[in-house]
Amino acid sequence: MIVIDTGNNIAALAAKMARPKVIAAYPITPQTKVVERIAEFVEKGELDTEYIHVESEHSAMTACIAASATGVRTFTATASHGLLLMHEMLHWAGLSRLPVVMVNVNRSIGPGWNIWSDLNDSLSQRDTGWIQFYASSNQEIFDNVIQAYKIAENEEIFLPAMVSYDGFILSHTSMPLDVPDQSKIDAFLPAFKPGWTLDVEHPITHGNIVSPKPYMDIRYSMEKAMKKAQKIIQEVGEEWGKKFGRPYGLVQEYRCDDADYVFVTMAALAAEAKVAVDNLRDKGEKAGLINLRTVRPFPYSQLKYDNMIVIDRDISPGLGGIIYHEMKKLNYTMYSFIAGIGGVDVSYKDIERMYQLAQDDKEGWYPLEVK
Amino acid sequence: MAIKDLPRDEYLLKGHAACPGCPITVALRIALKALGNKTILVIPACCSSVIQALYPKSGFNVPILNIAFEAAAAGASGVSAALKKLDKTDITPVVWAGDGGSYDIGIQALSGALERGTNFIYICYNNQMYSNTGIQRSGATPYGAWTTTTWTGKKEHQKELGEIVRAHHIPYVATATISYPEDLYAKVLKAKNMKGPRYIEIFAPCPPGWRFDMSKTIEMARLAVETGAWILYEEIDGQFAFTSYSKKILEGRDRKPIEEWLQLQGRFRHLTEDDMKKINSHLDEKWNQYKKS
Amino acid sequence: MKTAISLPTLGAMGKTGTWRVFRPIIDVEKCIKCWRCWIFCPDGVISRDDYPTIDLEYCKGCGICAHECPVDAIKMEREKK
What we know:
The structure holds three protein chains of three kinds.
Chain A: E1 2-6, H1 7-17, E2 22-24, H2 32-43, E3 50-52, H3 57-70, E4 74-79, H4 80-96, E5 101-106, H5 120-123, E6 131-134, H6 138-152, E7 161-166, E8 174-178, H7 182-188, E9 205-206, H8 212-244, E10 251-254, E11 261-266, H9 267-282, E12 287-292, E13 294-296, E14 308-312, H10 322-327, E15 334-338, H11 348-359, E16 364-365, E17 369-370
Parallel strand pairs in A: 2-3, 2-4, 4-5, 5-7, 6-7, 11-12, 11-14, 14-15, 15-16
Antiparallel strand pairs in A: 1-8, 6-13, 10-12, 16-17
Helix pairs in contact in A: 1-2, 1-6, 3-4, 6-8, 9-11
Chain B: H1 23-35, E1 39-43, H2 47-51, E2 57-58, E3 64-66, H3 72-85, E4 92-98, H4 99-104, H5 107-115, E5 120-126, H6 161-166, E6 172-177, H7 181-192, E7 197-203, H8 207-210, H9 217-226, E8 233-236, E9 239-242, H10 244-250, H11 258-262, H12 273-292
Parallel strand pairs in B: 1-3, 1-4, 4-5, 5-7, 6-7
Antiparallel strand pairs in B: 6-8, 8-9
Helix pairs in contact in B: 1-7, 3-5
Chain C: E1 5-8, E2 22-26, H1 36-40, E3 46-48, E4 52-54, H2 64-68, E5 74-78
Antiparallel strand pairs in C: 2-5, 3-4
């Protein structure tokens, strides 16, 4: 069914259709509509879940971890400072191998208070053991949330998964999208089978003191699962494609085959870059685009083009664009642009301009300092 | 109920990692006798994280979710919600936390869980300091006590977490201690048979932290009650009453001089007469308040 | 999938009786079976047979049982090397 709705409402709808048994969430701009919508579903009896009105995001993530450890599917949603407050528990979920799923609405970090999109919130959580998806349309928000459950709960994976999307650009913008029937979602996403549970018949202790060697083994197991996730993400994306007509992988390639220069970016910027690629192609330039759907696991094997123009809406001070530097181990010519920080608008025209600058062997903070 | 009538069930296995003379394991043994095997413990960072011993073994024979320091009550909220959806409400989610994790870093999650009417029992074992990290001051440390972060004695009185909890108007609030095992057992059992948020605080004298001989753990708890330094009470649906020995004091029995309790502990060795006056007047004030109410 | 899952184990910290410096010795003639030693033992090593028996494999020798015994039926003796 085609619906027209905002990113936040779609995230809440996707969560509802995944049938989580426990949701714990705390409101924060620009995510607030998600928690409001879910409260509405629960209070109208449309969603059979325990909704825990926690007093902080730290408690939201903790409650999801504990509920997941008790054996049920969970969901939460946050943004920006809320995600940062969760930081400790993001690690806890990862090391506990609990497939908690959440959406994060990308928003800049204060001070000063800035509610506009910037990916520094989620990218600063990339070492916590969470699978990270990024959406560049409301359709992708929906599709990613459902697939995230199937991937996270895969018995070879058992890792938490986060779906991020840009504040306001997607969260508050209505777009048309296809929402499959609940019966088809149910057929795609089986009931949650936990990897371990707190069971009074078979008591276990989770998380007591672990000495160095077994601790390292646990970390190593997590790394193997994250690597394995590349294959599972691909498989689940293909299955989604067969069932719903929209196949997914680790990245989405657009007009890359004969491209001289390939943009590499993600989230809403990728949607803008797609327009820029079409315009450049119309002008005879051989431009292409790789839209990163996942950042963890990082899709190294899919980034195999020379002259990649990496656009980061994020910054690691003293290092540079986070995605650009993640890619630096690849042996290709690359150009780095830092753009759109703090929600500064980046239009397709700006991206076309970056294409020209890269051809002139220039890069940097666009438009502040390019050389 | 007499001591001999308490259940023989043990959920703490011999050979756990608690210090000799530890009050926490005395408290936990008695609490679990009341709670039984249909219990899930949520334990934040505290001495009890260590007492469980090392992976892949555990000295505890009930399911345990260890959780971050500030997060115990939120963890229990998650367990409680999941149990409800799984139709397993015969299982009790129980937080087992120290005073640091309850008075200080975990008070936000605790308050939130209480206010939400979470169906769980929160048990705080109060040894009046951060014992596990090596005897640092907490919000529960009393005035004058030496700790490794108050070398010349703490300058402030402890806060009354029980009173803060009571302000949440939950079904059950109680204090207890290990020297009155029947009282402790009865309170945990009473809590177990109720629903909603229930809070029990167990006073737990720590031999290495307080600087007394490990054989005197129980005596130290008993003296705390007899001198009025620790008060045993319970509040059921708003009905507040002193219990056990504290009730006798309230009804007129003499409180032993606080000095009898203080002088047995190395942490109070340096107290001056002025300090003693402050401690006594603080104690009198507290008792007078209770006598009036 | 590996995470920190531990199983309940007797002697999780080993034979903690080796920690002991003083050994509790019960004089059953004196014992009145009040079971205070049993309930106050932090290590749960005192079992309720006819008379209290102490599992010396795990007893850490804290001496609470001796200190709390109302009839002085338990004394603490230094362990011999």
